Amino acid sequence: MTASTPHLEPVWLRRHADVMAAALDHETFSSAVSEHLNVPNGMDGAEHCRYRAVVDKFMNPERSAALEPQCRQVARELLAGVADGVSVDVVGGFGRGFAVRAQSRWLGWPAELEQPLLQWMEDNHAATRSGELDQTTAIAQRFDKIITDLVNARRMGRIGGRGVPVDPTDELAHDFVGDVPLLLSEIVSILRNWTAGDLGTISRCMGSIVNHLAQHPELQADMRRRIDDEPYVNAAIDEMLRIDNPFLSNRRIATRDVEVGGVSIRKGQRVYLDWVSANRDPAVFGDPDGFRPEENAPNNLVYGIGKHVCPGRTLATMELRSATTELLAATTLIEPAEGAENVRETHPLAGFRSLHVVLHKR
Ligand code: HEM
Description:
Blueprint: E1 11-13, H1 16-24, E2 29-30, H2 45-56, H3 61-80, E3 87-89, H4 90-107, H5 114-130, H6 133-155, H7 168-173, E4 176-177, E5 180-181, H8 184-215, H9 217-225, H10 230-243, E6 249-254, E7 258-260, E8 263-265, E9 270-274, H11 275-278, H12 282-285, H13 293-296, H14 313-329, E10 331-336, E11 343-344, E12 352-354, E13 356-361
Parallel strand pairs: 1-9
Antiparallel strand pairs: 2-6, 3-13, 4-5, 6-9, 7-8, 10-13, 11-12
């Protein structure tokens, strides 16, 4: 890890060109920003490549496709419990419920864990918002305990562990990096990143998507007509997320003195890549609110860029497509809930904390 320079304020890169430049210059902008083990997010160079290969195989298109029927089933179950014409919070209610159940089905985690995981996510977000490092560390430890128990059950053969993995948690619990078995601490770190990537982000993504749809009934109608057109639906979802990106930023640390977009950055200085601002940079997108999926796709940074580009993209897109199209199929119209108090997330999170809409059911 490059030692950070304590007296220097962190630099926020917000322009599209500057964020791209830093995200693609892995030598100058190191991801090793914390002393805590963070696999593979906080790794650089050859070490990052070795661990990234472990993670990538769990999220390939074939595996995501195999999981899709279960994700659709989860969305349908949740929607069946929603009455016609009432106000629903699609982030705190539907989104969170969908994210935790879809993730549990993917990883083979028991239904009893849904509540503790939702509580953990809530506390983790509160700690992140507060910026209190001690609080964040304590919450990470609480999560590690939940995950360690799950992994140990597989490592000790109480669940699976007999050659053919019974679920991805079992597979990871017996996985290798090269020829070396993964350490328990590494497995826990990988699972923590998957959970953080999945639970909070997916539910906030649902807020951005459903808000856009509720504000644009003509787009809803178009998507209902083309509900089975996967490339069209995926592109529409990516573009709604570009317009209102719920994933604010990632950190780097400069390994040398460097200048980016006229800003001098010193060796050891912390740098934030602001994906939200970059994705709304008028120099690249013109009117940032303009919905132009095809035109804007090549510059869309919702899932990052460079060696750390999100490995969960295919999985996340499948989950979001499942939830969105099931929502559209179950309704004739999604409308903003008049008078409801919708809460926006605050720094360092983005997107909605709650978003209320009325579902007019079919
Ligand atoms: C819609 C939801 C998601 C969004 C917007 C998102 C966004 C991102 C972004 C911007 C990065 C780049 C980080 C960087 O450059 O430092 C990233 C990395 C990562 N994401 Fe996601 N992500 C999402 C879902 C997921 C899911 C579902 C998973 C796993 C289950 C996941 C796991 C990861 C991991 C492990 C990394 C670090 C990769 C590395 O360092 O090589 N993400 N994500």
